[in-house]
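HUMAN: Mind sharing a backbone?

ASSISTANT:
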Amino acid sequence: MSVRDRILDGCDLETFIVCGGVEEGKRLGLRLMAELGFQDADVVFCEKGGPGVRIRLRGYVYRPSAEYRWDKEEPEDHEV
């Protein structure tokens, strides 16, 4: 089982993206999440500042009440 399969909800990412404005920043942020492999993502926060935006994104592995993989598979044996 991968570590990603053990995540209960999602992964948050915060960064600064150089762009022309908030709408462009949001589009680029969601594109970044797709490039990182998240099929489902939201913009949590986005604020213009200087040459771009400060943006916080959440990439969902599982939405609430989803069918989780980690409760379906056998745990790994951690013996050395």
The chain has one domain: 4-60.
